[in-house]
Write a structure and sequence with these properties.
With 730 residues, this protein is α/β, with parallel strands linked by helices. Helices cover 54% and strands 9% of the residues. The chain has helices spanning 14-25, 61-84, 93-115, 133-146, 155-164, 181-184, 190-195, 215-232, 243-273, 280-295, 310-325, 328-335, 343-361, 369-380, 389-406, 410-421, 470-478, 502-510, 531-534, 545-556, 567-590, 598-620, 635-650, 657-675, 681-701, 703-714; strands at residues 5-6, 34-43, 46-55, 437-444, 447-453, 458-462, 465-468, 488-492, 521-525, 624-628, 726-729. The strands form three sheets. It has a six-stranded mixed beta sheet with strand order 9-8-10-5-4-11, sandwiched between helices. The protein has a three-stranded antiparallel beta sheet with strand order 1-2-3. The protein has a two-stranded antiparallel sheet with strand order 6-7. The longest helix is centred in the middle third of the chain and has 31 residues, at 243-273. The protein is globular. The relative contact order is 0.08.
């Protein structure tokens, strides 16, 4: 068993100080408060960060006093830095007001600590917090240096407007369903925001119409964001490039690739549109197409300082397209049996379907980030590139994490931008420019499988209701007549057993009951983030391989455990494939070991998931595949990377350095572009774990021998020649 040693706790950060001050300022005799601390464990020489809460309590008076003093010191240091490093250059009244707000928190916290002094033993002798040297130094500096230069601001009004503005405008609506007790008292906290783990809850309402956040959290986000931005602007270290410019370039390249794929359809539509001016759908589709054309123009890139950017034009395109898709006139065209007698109607239908199809299989803009991502990472690394692909991948991740530390509040700022925008009143990844992207293709003799990175194709305003986007439905409709992709397989990697993700899972699975889509879509759900998947709770010590395999098989066959397979797939999977696949994974990658560590069981589950996915590709005859988590950024990226590595590392070109660079881009570009952070550590280290198992198998058996054993073990399981697949990428 690995030994654990705790490193020294890190310094209190501004984020922690503000959150703790907020808690103390709202303290009552019936409440308790604490400070979030970042700590580290060292396991097998690897440092793993985690957070704990140190509760402020009467039985730990000395520690409580130390925390209070640390908070005052942290605030003082930030005030000094703010004042000395450029305050005189700052004219923004709102920024100044944020300093005032922090000092109000300091004063309220100090009053509460004195008021409820009986809750704490701050020292052997009674003492007022306001008499502490650290508190008096902070107040003196603020009153003599900062306060005289600060005018009245409007932050309080801003917070109130935000909590009662567009995002809260529908809070008064009464729903048919009563509020769910599970979510009634659930709120997003600052720690979750920092981890960027539940940001979707900012856009989703509870069943009773209320929000998962409160004004206090928004205030803290704003304080940390603006002050963090001020101090980072003083740093001279290497920082991330302007990611808004990256996003704009991505949007321009995406629009251009869509236009290129639709050129013939658009030409025919525009020629006929001239003869049909004034008709509503003609006018609507014309302005939709023009917005896309303007978005595709390099002249409108942010780097060219245009009056309106590619991104802004693309938002117009999305809005106009959705208006068409939801219109009654277009819905009639979709189901019309006499469309052949209506030339302009037919062109509108085919062009609109083509636009939706283009959003999924022709939106290739993400590929321009491959060079940018790899150059960014390697520019900051010291020394030559490692010959060990796993070491190189780990070093790339660590370098990206280092860059992110300088840009520490990227996700937080992203969140505030969306909230301030006022247009994001539901969780809608595509509407928030998280677009699908075709990434790579695998060829098995004459069969081609296109991997498309995509978020959940849903939009969700309430936690118990989610709906599939019209763009995705129309893309599926286009598969009836479009060339190439005829059937799309979605592997949903969300936990349908939890209230957070159940509605999205149900909405996607429900498409299979629609006769217009069932011929062009296959949906399976693999449970994710459960005790089984994480091997926690009563599974944590289940080290015996035979028992573990039995449990895994039973869960995958039980739809009550969070898995979903359509009825027509259940028999070939349950009775034939899964038992043989689990045995083959045990034999090939774990040499039939009688005991499996928790990390080995993690790798076992992930390999089983990916191999089961390939069997479903074979059974469903799908042409396109997506691993679909809520946003396609962390879990989806990790599984797409694992699938790519399995193809690439087992193929004859397994030593191709270009493939390793592509894997780096595959894993890191989505989170960097859409969330301004690295892949979340939980997903990255789990992926590294399974890649290590795969690499060890290659090293122990030899590449040629492993290929031979794969063919031998899976010859009776797969018909597709998986282990001779050729992979290409854009």
């Amino acid at each position: 068993m690995a030994t654990k040693t705790k490193d020294q706790t890190k310094e209190l950060t501004l984020v922690d100080a503000i959150e703790t001050l907020s808690s103390i300022a709202e303290l009552g005799a019936d409440k308790k408060t604490g400070v979030v601390e970042e700590q580290q464990l060292k396991i097998k020489e690897k440092k793993i960060s985690y957070h704990s809460v140190r509760w402020l309590h009467h039985s730990d008076g000395e520690s409580t006093l130390a925390v209070i003093k640390d908070i005052f010191r942290v605030i003082l240091q930030y005030l000094i830095g703010f004042y000395e490093k450029g305050y005189n250059e700052v004219n923004d009244k709102q920024t100044a007001e944020e300093i005032r707000t922090i000092m109000v928190l300091v004063g309220e916290a100090a009053k509460n600590l004195d008021k409820y002094g009986n809750l704490f033993t701050l020292s052997h002798q009674p003492i007022s917090v306001m008499e502490l040297q650290e508190y008096q130094q902070l107040q003196a500096y603020y009153l003599t240096k900062v306060a005289p230069k600060i005018d009245d601001g409007h932050m309080g009004k801003w917070i109130l407007a935000l909590s009662k503005g567009p995002l809260a405008a529908k809070a008064h609506l009464k729903l048919k369903h009563s509020a769910n007790d599970t979510t009634k008292h659930v709120f997003v906290d600052l720690h979750s925001v920092k981890r960027d783990s539940e940001y979707e809850l900012f856009f989703i309402r509870k069943e009773d119409g209320s929000r998962f956040f409160n004004p206090r959290l928004i205030r803290n986000l704003k304080l940390v964001s603006d002050l963090g931005h001020f101090f980072r602007s003083q740093e001279k270290r290497h920082t991330l490039p302007r990611l808004d410019i990256w996003l704009d370039k991505y949007i321009q390249a995406t629009a251009a690739s869509m236009i290129n794929s639709l050129k013939n359809k658009l030409d025919m539509f525009f020629r006929e549109a001239v003869r049909n001016k004034g008709k509503p759908l003609v006018e609507d589709l014309t302005k939709t197409s023009m917005a896309l054309l303007l978005s595709a123009s390099p002249k409108h890139l942010l780097s060219e300082h245009p009056s309106k950017s590619c991104l802004a034009y693309f938002k117009d395109f999305q809005r106009f397209l959705r208006e068409i898709l939801h219109s009654k006139e277009y819905q009639k065209l979709l189901v019309s049996s006499t469309i052949g007698n209506n030339k302009i109607g037919g062109l509108i239908r085919e062009t609109t379907l083509g636009l939706c199809r283009g959003l999924y299989i022709h939106a290739k803009g993400l590929s321009i980030l491959q060079t940018l991502t790899n150059d960014l990472i390697h520019k900051g690394k010291k020394g030559s590139k490692s010959q060990d692909r796993l070491v190189e991948l780990m070093e790339s991740y660590e370098e990206l994490q280092h860059l992110i530390q300088v840009h520490a509040h990227g996700p937080l700022n992203k969140m505030l931008d969306m909230l301030l925008d006022g247009e994001n009143d539901e969780f809608d990844p595509m509407g928030q420019l998280n677009l699908p992207s075709p990434l790579y293709a695998a060829y098995f003799n004459d069969k081609r499988l296109l991997y498309i990175r995509m978020p959940s194709p849903t939009h969700q305003e309430y936690v118990h209701k989610a709906f599939v986007n019209e763009e995705f439905k129309n893309y599926l409709t286009s598969c009836e007549t479009g060339s190439g992709i005829k059937k799309h397989l979605l592997i949903v990697l969300q936990d349908k057993t939890t209230w957070k993700e159940a509605a999205r899972c149900q909405a996607i699975e429900g498409l299979l009951h629609h006769k217009d889509f069932s011929n062009h879509l296959e949906v399976c759900t693999f449970t994710y983030d459960t005790d089984l998947y994480r091997q926690t709770d009563h599974y944590q010590d289940e080290n015996e391989a035979e028992s573990f395999k039995k449990i895994l098989l039973e869960h995958m066959k039980d739809d009550h455990s969070g898995f979903f397979f359509p009825p027509h797939l259940q028999r070939p999977l349950y009775s034939e494939f899964l038992p043989q696949c689990i045995e083959a994974v045990h034999s090939l990658f774990f040499e039939k070991a009688t005991l499996l560590t928790r990390e080995e069981r993690h790798a076992f589950i992930d390999l089983t998931y990916v191999l089961t996915t390939l069997k479903i590709v074979e059974l469903s005859q799908a042409d396109a595949l997506s691993f679909c988590c809520k946003d396609g950024i962390d879990t989806g990226a990790a599984f797409s990377g694992l699938l790519f590595a399995l193809f690439q590392w087992v193929s004859p070109n397994y030593k191709d350095v270009k493939g390793d660079d592509f894997l780096t881009y595959l894993l890191f570009a989505p989170s960097l572009l859409w969330r301004e952070r690295a892949l979340r550590p939980e997903q990255f280290y789990r992926l590294m774990n399974v890649l290590k198992v795969l690499e060890n198998s290659i090293q122990k058996k030899g590449h040629a021998n492993l290929q031979h054993q794969l063919r031998q073990e899976f010859s009776g399981i797969f018909s597709l020649p998986l282990w001779n697949a050729e992979v290409s990428w854009t």
